[in-house]
Write a structure and sequence with these properties.
mainly alpha; globular; two-stranded antiparallel ribbon; 12 helices; MetI-like fold; 74% helix
Length: 288
């Protein structure tokens, strides 16, 4: 009997930590979403699904969902595509390529607060570096963060710049794990570079692509720091996204139940995206 219980006793500390810091917060979040609470009053009023009904009827929330979707799809797809191209270019030996790999990776280790402040200066319409460079070539300056038409695009640029180095290095590691004999066989068959990339490199990189896309999707849905520092969801709600929307209603407007309902929906959206992604693409991943 003791031998059968021993494995469970060994994982018990991990299960306790998992339940305490994962299961309990989710359960408490769901409980809060069913109540009306202002974060100050000691009493919470049970209102059932009214917070969810209010969410789905709110046009601002629908706009936030659209902004989040555009940001997530654009940043993840562009970062993945550019990272693969950079990895193919930098997957070489030599001091120059080693230096370039380190330079490209460096934004990943810089805090998002510092990055946000840096890009705010670069995108400043009057004296920012980007508009200064555009003026040199005769192009009128862009209202990067100050116009609804360009503000979301500006945040996508920052996200791509931030994530490019990490993704590139992971792809380089994936490329270096591909056996050279496979490429030698392709050379013997006179395969073109494009055919080699499509038939060998991409399939062999599929586990790396699968991993990076899913973690980038989850991270993009949870973006907060750049919005909080650079735009505060503006102008005209054009850059407001789910996590910042939850923060606003929870800690600025003190609508804890409403914010918790939005948090439950965010959890559901990420879970659905992850499940669908695994269901659609897991069979296309080649591990050998």
């Amino acid at each position: 009997m003791m031998q059968k219980a021993q494995p469970y006793l060994m994982i018990l500390p991990s299960l306790v930590v998992f339940a305490l810091f994962f299961l309990y917060p989710i359960g408490y979040l769901i409980q809060l979403s069913l109540h009306d609470w202002n974060f100050i009053s000691p009493e919470m009023n049970f209102i059932g699904l009214q917070n969810f009904q209010q969410l789905f009827a709110d046009n601002e929330f629908k706009e936030v969902l659209l902004n989040t979707t555009i940001y997530t799809v654009s940043s993840v797809s562009v970062t993945t595509a550019l990272s693969i191209l950079l990895a193919l270019w930098l997957n070489k030996k030599g001091l120059l390529y080693t230096f370039l790999q380190g330079a490209i990776f460096s934004p990943h280790v810089i805090s998002l607060v510092s990055i946000a402040l840096l890009w705010m200066w670069m995108m400043e319409p009057d004296y920012g570096l980007l508009n200064w460079a555009l003026n040199l070539v005769g192009i009128n300056g862009i209202q990067w963060l100050n116009a609804p038409e360009t503000s979301l695009f500006s945040l996508i640029v920052v996200a791509v710049w931030k994530g490019l180095g990490f993704n590139t290095l992971i792809f380089i590691a994936g490329l270096q794990s591909i056996p050279k004999t496979v490429y030698e066989a392709a050379d013997l068959d006179d395969a073109s570079r494009f055919s080699t990339f499509r038939e060998i490199t991409l399939p062999m990189l599929s586990p790396t692509i699968f991993f990076l896309v899913i973690i980038n999707l989850i991270g993009s849905f949870q973006v907060f720091e750049t919005i909080s520092i650079m735009t505060q969801g503006g102008p005209i709600n054009s850059t407001n996204m789910l996590v910042y929307y939850i923060y606003e209603y929870g800690f600025q407007f003190f609508k804890i139940g409403y914010a918790s309902a939005a948090g439950v929906l965010l959890l559901g959206i990420i879970s659905i995206f992850t499940a669908v992604y695994f269901w659609l693409l897991s069979r296309r991943v080649h591990y050998q």
